[in-house]
Design brief:
alpha+beta, 11-stranded mixed beta sheet, 10-stranded mixed beta sheet
Length: 708
């Protein structure tokens, strides 16, 4: 059973008289020298949203100890300052011999704690209870992310762990699974692979495997590893298929080094395997009659040559049969779970190893994979896309886009038919790609005009935009969030100018800069301190007297500037973003265009609304003195009931009115929409849907979204 030690900030530690960061719980059996070394590791952690794991060996009290550590941050300590916690599991060399690799224990042990609430205490014996897990070999997680389990061998050099960095893993748990599968390839030496899941926090010294960017070592990018060629070695084949070629299968004089490759896979037919078996039987019979005791003395025996044992090539071919059968068995398990993307990956990997083997089993698996992969993958991706908050998480959206791209590649390679399911999968991928191009944040649209002026050839020209009292009040409330101090104080925030040609379009041409925020008795002002080169400096003042945004140019304002729509992005002291769009030319603003897949009809009430994944784009965007509404083609305005939901009755009313008022040339189109409506297809019955900003009287001012 392992020993344990917990280290965090408390008012009273386990040792009388100690407070602050100290040991709060441990086993008595841990030597004092090892306690000091563990306390010396501190509590490294990046931020409250991350968990960092390390594994290392420490020498103390005349023996070696294996240390699996988990570092967390979160909550406040007894002084109301940010607290951190380190929890260490301590193993002896004898204990490690019968345990899974440390990374596997890290991800499956159920005893990790988030924070310390109790009194300091000596710990009772630990039961190492692990959650259920899948076999580490073949390396299925490596196959899922990189196309083949063989690439787990990248982390191995000879009989030990290579010095490698893994970057762009989705999260800590994913990194632990990759480390666990790779270390399992080392067998009993799996506990020699020291690692850290976040080298930027713990440093890379003393660790073979590092999560995150480091210098001076080989780097593997998980997001692009699928495009890299897989290693070719016995260990790589073991990682891919689960069975390693044993040393006994090698020619007698061949050393078991990683550079010696097994012969190219050549699967044995039933006849060849039978021939080998018969050869062994024949050899046994011959030996029996040679050495059988006789009652009569034999003076001379003609010994027939004994058939030699099978060659290394024959044994390698037999081993390939075993590997292929193992891979086939795993494929059947994947198919039983209806994970058709994983099944396609597995099939592609097997077919690269042995085309003859896959040709024999193709009809058993491929037609079903081809028929089901697009539909099941589209459903899984759409469920992820509709998760709450994903649209506002750029990293999650990018991971989803990459996953969709990879699944499309696999579906094409496996030969998925070009049907409605594949079209749906393509559409989901397009939606994920679109989200990566959008910047979803609180956005305030303010119509108005620029007024320019100049004080002479040597003085920069200026341009002012009056945002009005209502927008000024919203800006003032936003800027005061998170501020400390009252009137007369100042604080640093961030600001930038950005082009705003399309709704929510991401603009990466400029960056946030420092700005000085000053509070007055009845106003708040912001002044940019370090503007971008070739960009005007920006300042704003909102309050009871004036609500203006001012730009200062090095020379004259650019031609046509007064017709420009300019975005000003602010990051306040509370860490929240807002973009104020100064609309001098609303007609030039491009709406966001989507497919009808961005809408859905609720079967319970037959209302048409925005899909959850795109809803934040429009709920966080508002027009001063206006509201956003979803409308079918030809909707009748003014409409004072603007909402992002349309009932069946409203759509029905629109179609009746359109049919009555339509010209003869348009009645065919309206009749087609009526047929779709009567069949229950309300999305297509609406034609080209739009989202519009309408004023207080219900008149449309601005179109910000389009669905067709």
């Amino acid at each position: 059973m392992p020993l344990s030690l917990v280290f965090t900030s408390v008012a009273q530690g386990l040792t009388p008289g100690r407070s602050g960061f100290c040991t709060v719980a441990r086993h008595r059996e841990i030597p004092e020298r090892l306690v000091a070394l563990l306390e010396g590791l501190g509590t490294p952690n990046g931020n409250s949203s991350t968990v960092v794991f390390t594994f290392r060996r420490l020498d103390a009290a005349a023996q070696s100890w294996y240390i699996l550590s988990r570092f967390t941050a979160g909550g406040l300590d007894y002084t109301q300052r940010d607290n951190r916690l380190a929890q260490h599991l301590v193993f002896t060399d004898e204990e490690s011999a019968g345990l899974p690799p440390p990374a596997d224990i890290a991800s499956r042990w159920q005893g990790w704690i988030e924070k310390w609430d109790g009194e300091p205490r000596w710990l009772d014996p630990i039961k190492l209870q692990l959650k259920a897990g899948r076999p580490l070999i073949p390396c299925s997680h490596w196959r899922k992310l990189t196309g083949t389990g063989a690439k787990a061998a990248w982390l191995i050099a000879g009989e030990s762990a290579a010095n490698v960095s893994l970057i762009n893993a989705k999260d800590t748990d994913e990194l632990l699974q990759l480390f666990a599968e790779a270390s399992a390839l080392l067998g009993r030496a799996s506990w020699s692979a020291n690692f850290t899941t976040e080298a930027s926090v713990t440093g890379s010294d003393g660790f073979a495997w590092c999560g995150g960017e480091t210098s001076g070592r080989y780097t593997i990018d998980i997001t692009s590893a699928i495009h890299e060629p897989a290693p070719e070695s016995e260990r790589a084949r073991q990682a891919a298929l689960g069975v390693a070629v044993q040393t006994a299968m090698r020619p007698p004089n061949q050393l078991p080094t990683e550079s010696n490759h097994a012969p190219s896979p050549a699967y044995l037919s039933g006849g060849l395997i039978g021939a080998i078996a018969l050869a062994f039987c024949a050899a046994g019979v011959a030996l029996y009659f040679i050495y059988k005791p006789h009652k009569e003395e034999v003076t001379h025996v003609e010994t027939a040559p004994v058939k030699k044992v099978p060659t290394a090539e024959e044994m390698a071919a037999a081993a390939d049969v075993l590997r292929a059968n193992r891979a086939l068995q795993e494929l059947q398990d994947i198919m039983s779970r209806e994970d058709y993307v994983a099944a396609a990956r597995q099939w592609i990997e097997i077919s690269q190893i042995s085309p003859a083997f896959t040709a024999r089993h193709r009809d058993q698996f491929v037609p079903r994979i081809q028929a089901c992969i697009a539909k099941s993958a589209a459903k899984a991706l759409e469920d992820k896309l509709n998760q709450t908050g994903i649209a506002e998480n750029p990293e999650a959206v990018e991971a989803l886009r990459a996953e969709a791209t990879e699944i499309m590649r696999i579906a094409k390679e496996i030969g998925a038919p070009k049907d409605t399911a594949l079209a749906q999968l393509t559409d989901v991928g397009a939606r994920a790609k679109l989200l990566t191009q959008l910047d979803i944040r609180d956005t305030l649209l303010v119509p108005g005009k620029w007024v320019t002026g100049s004080a002479g050839p040597k003085i920069p020209s200026t341009a002012e935009f009056d945002v009005g009292a209502k927008a000024g009040a919203k800006l003032s409330a936003f800027l005061k969030e998170g501020l400390t101090g009252g009137p007369g104080t100042s604080q640093s925030i961030s600001i930038r100018l950005c082009a705003y040609r399309s709704i929510a379009q991401r603009d990466n041409t400029t960056r946030l800069h420092r700005a000085k925020l000053e509070q007055g008795a009845s106003s708040v002002s912001v002044t940019e301190e370090t503007p971008s080169p070739n960009q005007p400096s920006v300042s704003l003042s909102v309050g009871s007297r004036a609500n203006t945004v001012t730009l200062k140019f090095a020379g004259q304002a650019p031609s046509g500037f007064t017709e420009s729509n300019i975005g000003i992005e602010l990051l306040n002291a509370a860490g929240r973003k807002m973009c104020v769009v100064l609309l001098a030319n609303p007609e030039a603003l491009e709406p966001i265009r989507f497919s009808l897949g961005a809408l859905y009809t609720d079967p319970s009430n037959q209302e048409t609304a925005l899909a959850p994944w795109i809803e934040p784009v429009f709920t966080r965007l508002s027009l001063i003195d206006g509201r956003n509404g979803l409308y079918p083609a030809g909707h009748n305005f003014p409409d004072r009931t603007a909402a992002l939901v349309i009932s069946k009755n409203i759509l029905d009313t629109d179609l009746i009115r359109l049919n009555t008022a339509a010209e003869a040339t348009r009645r065919t189109e309206i009749n087609e929409r009526r047929k779709l409506f009567d069949s229950g297809d309300f999305l297509n019955a609406g034609g080209t849907w739009t989202i519009r900003c309408v004023d207080s009287r219900g008149n449309p001012i601005l179109q910000i979204g389009e669905f067709r």
